[in-house]
Amino acid sequence: MPRVLIADKLSPAAIEIFKQRGVDADVKTGLSKDELLKIIGDYDGLAVRSATKADKDVIAAAKNMKVIGRAGIGVDNVDIPAATAAGIVVMNTPFGNSITTAEHAIAMMFALARQLPAADVSTQAGKWEKNRFMGVEVYAKTLGLIGAGNIGSIVADRALGLKMKVVAYDPFLSPERAVELGVEKVELDELLARADFITLHTPLTDKTRNILSAENLAKAKKGVKIINCARGGLVDETALRKLLDEGHIGGAAFDVFVEEPAKANVLFGAENFIATPHLGASTNEAQENVALQVAEQMSDYLLTGAVTNALNSPSVTAEEAPRLAPFIALAGKLGVFAGQMVDYGVAAIDIAYEGEVSKLNAKPLTAAALAGVLRPMLGDAVNMVSAPAVAKERGITLSESHQEDSPIYESLIRITVTTEKGKRSFAGSVLAGTPRVVEVKGMDLDAPFGPTMLYVNNEDKPGFIGALGIMLAEAGVNIATFNLGRVSAGDDAIALVGVDQVPSEALMTNIQALPHVKEARTLRF
Predict the structure, then answer these.
(1) 250 and 127 within one domain
(2) Domain presence at residue 245
(3) Is 231 in the active site?
(4) 23 lies in which domain range?
(5) Does any domain span residue 280?
(6) Which of 39, 116, 188, 192 has a CB 3.0–4.6 Å from the CB of 220, allowing a cystine?
(7) Out of 231, 241, 414, 436, which one is annotated catalytic?
(8) pTM above 0.70, yes or no
(9) Is 260 a catalytic residue?
(10) Long-range contacts for 258-262 (Cβ within 8 Å, ≥24 apart)?
């Protein structure tokens, strides 16, 4: 039974989901780092919110860890590169608090437009400063949306309902999607020049950090009001304070800050600045939703291999997982075959999908194949999660091709590895639910994968099979399967031999010395 450590508070309903699905869930919240390091190695999964820090030390100690689930969107408390290198899937729950966060952004916009927090303080202090708090309508104003993903699209929908004009800057927003959302897609400079309100809904990356820099804030329309309920660091806080004081920026409302908890901040005390303590996801509905989602997602992965909302691994739905499983196995074994046949640095890997498999979700198949190729060279630490990053670090070019028709097989996967010495190609198929090798060096054959196999490339001459059989028998190596392929009579040939014992180095040297043998290798799967 898989074991999951719930290190931050989740609802009882989420804990019950783990148990009902057959996952052993231990609730141990408020652990110190030292306490966490002592026990984390016993668990297959770690469920957190934002308090527990899954840093590189914790990940290094998590020897059995397969998945880290974050009940919420932000994963600043998880070292994703370290998790990826360790082959740990990192999941979040980006949709459970989407409505809640979008509603908070809209609420902040209204609070800015009508100066509600300051008016409340003034009124409850016994003042009646009706003329001081002159607001603006949001009706017919232009809302500038930076980021039009899940939350941004909900904000756009709400803003359109308020009869606002919505312009959006998002490099990944297609023209078709913009039309569907009812927004106008623009470049950032145009958004800055036109928007009466700007709201940010984008993750914090190297490209989005300080997207509202001092330079961009200066380009904004005079009097613009800025809302940030996304991530701290998207706006240059110091530059914003200066422009608030100068009156160029008409107001700002922030739920997130560069440093949190924000006990002090350069923006605090500025005229028409509103702050909330990262409340975007703080509704009962959202907290319940993300907890239930993370429990479902982690259980699915640990029990079925389904991957949902992973930040460092291809997604596989629960429906896809059973159909993909035999092809993931084929891609992985075929990759291991290719990796064991390569003695020089890999420059490029091409994976071709033919037939029905070309219509499936290829990302997990490609990740499995890539991991297979790299594992013989780099060890078992390389898996489907870490392989793409490892390949990128080493400058290996990865390419895919898809062809709906396959001349012979219903589905075929072909892996071609390019090294400084040339190319080697290997193809396989799934027959009766079992992965099989069907082509090596352009030669057709049909061989199941066995735990230990011999690969022998030889000239097709009489007596070779007998000589090989005798040599194996004399060494006490039993033949489990024997499959042959060749170009034509007397030409190049290969033998793939499944054996029950691992051949010794001396035996392999003797096989290599047989007449007409070009190459002999032991393969392990």
Answers:
(1) yes
(2) yes
(3) yes
(4) 3-96+285-304
(5) no
(6) 192
(7) 231
(8) no
(9) yes
(10) 258/232, 258/233, 259/232, 260/232
